[in-house]
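Researcher: We're reviewing a set of sequences before deciding which ones to prioritize for further study. For each one, I'd like a predicted 3D structure that I can look through quickly. This is Ig-like domain-containing protein. If possible, include the structure in C-alpha cell form so it fits the rest of the review sheet.
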Amino acid sequence: MILADSRFNQCTAKSVGSVVEHHPSSYWEQPFSQPYFDNTTRRETTTTVGQSAYLHCRVRNLGDRAVSWIRKRDLHILTVGILTYTNDQRFQSLHGDGTDEWTLKISSPQVRDTGTYECQVSTEPKISQAFNLSVVVSKAKINGNSELYIKSGSDINLTCIVLQTPEPPSFIYWYKGDHVINYSQRGGISVVTEKQTRTSHLLISRALPADSGNYTCAPSTAESASVLVHVLNDSKTPIRP
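Model: Here's the predicted structure for Ig-like domain-containing protein, in C-alpha cell form for your review sheet.
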C-alpha cells in the first residue's frame, strides 16, 4: 500500500508539474488576458481643412490600463483616458462606457496637423498602434479661363469641379456677385450637380448683357472658385458688371 501511495503521489506530482509547465504565469500575465488592438479599424484618414477628423483606436481586454494618444512628430501627449493633456483644445478623446473604442477627435484640423498619431496602452512594456492623418485643402475649379467672353444670345455654360475632397460636398451653390443665383428671377437658368463626381454645371440660356458679372462656385467643404463673364453686345465690346 505504501508503494502504491508513493507511485500515486509521484504520478500526481508529474501531472501537477505538467500543468505548471504549460501555465507558468499568473492570470494577468497570461496572453489571453493582455490588452491587444483590434486591427479592423481604418489606419489611414484623409480630411479637409476645417472638417473634424476622427481616428478610431479599438483596444480589447483593456482591464485597468490607460489609453493615450501621442503625436508622433514631437512625442507630445495629447490625451490620457478621456482627459486632454495639451493646451490645444482642438484635440479630444471620445469614449463610450462599456466600449472598446477610444477615438481621437481633431476639431478644425489644419494642414500642419498632417502626420502620424499613436494610440498607446499603458502595459509593460507599452504597446502602440500608428494612425496616419492627411489634412488637405479642398478647392473648387471652374473649367476654362478666369474670364469668359461670349456673344449676346449665346449660352453661358460653366462647369465646376471640386478637387482634393475625401467626401462629396453636401451642396454646391452658384453665386452671381454676392447673391445666390435665383432661378425665378429669369427663365433659362439650370444647375445640375453630380455629388459623386463632385461636379456642378451652370447653364444660362440666351445670355444678355445684363448677365455679365462675376460667377462663383461655392461647395460646402471647399474653397470657392470664380470666373468673370462678359456678354458682348452687337458692338463686341466687353460689358463690365
